[in-house]
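Input structure tokens:
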């Protein structure tokens, strides 16, 4: 997976992802789902290009959950849905995936479970040293990336703003999803426990 700044236009997109998962569950192909989304403007966007771009993002994330995890999504709790939406985001974007493991998990385990915007900026600077592609991102893009990450983490319930810093907390899920994560999926387990490794 390559580094991409493409997630600057990402969002939580819960309703859109649910729609795509439901259509996949009903047996529709990518082409059929895209056609329905475009013709019926299911995502309620103004232009065809905006609908097409959003569909690309949403479909990609939905496919990280389909078929196995979509069952947990539809049959699980609200908390299960939130952790799976965060999971879908992290599975699609290398920078976000690494940010979760290298910054969020680290801050939870070693820094009293707190996270500040300055930590996000410092992490970005470290990654610039490791990747020319990241170093070449525009300053506005870098700010938007950090803003998008904080939005996604907040929506999932993993971080909560307390005074002037974020408190990082493990995500609580149903016993069924927790068991699946422990047996089948290292990333999902890390989201639930905020511990890296097996």
């Amino acid at each position: 997976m390559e580094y991409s700044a493409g997630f600057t236009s990402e969002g939580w997109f819960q309703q859109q992802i649910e729609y795509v998962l439901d259509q996949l569950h009903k047996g529709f192909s990518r082409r059929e789902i895209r056609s329905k989304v475009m013709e019926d403007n299911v995502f309620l966007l103004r232009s065809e290009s905006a609908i097409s771009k959003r569909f690309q993002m949403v479909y990609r994330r939905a496919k990280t959950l389909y078929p196995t995890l979509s069952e947990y999504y539809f049959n699980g709790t609200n908390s299960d849905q939130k952790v799976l939406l965060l999971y879908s985001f992290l599975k699609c974007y290398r920078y976000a995936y690494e940010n979760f493991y290298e910054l969020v998990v680290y801050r939870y385990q070693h820094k009293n479970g707190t996270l500040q915007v300055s930590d996000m900026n410092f992490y970005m600077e470290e990654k610039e040293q490791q990747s020319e592609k990241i170093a070449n991102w525009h300053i506005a893009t870098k700010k938007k990336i950090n803003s998008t990450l904080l939005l996604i983490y907040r929506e999932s319930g993993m971080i909560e703003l307390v005074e002037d810093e974020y408190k990082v907390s493990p995500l609580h899920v149903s016993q069924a999803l927790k068991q699946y994560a422990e047996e089948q999926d290292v990333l999902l387990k890390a989201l639930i426990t905020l511990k890296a490794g097996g």
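The first strand starts at residue 114 and ends at 115. Residues 39 and 50 are 13 Å apart (CA to CA).
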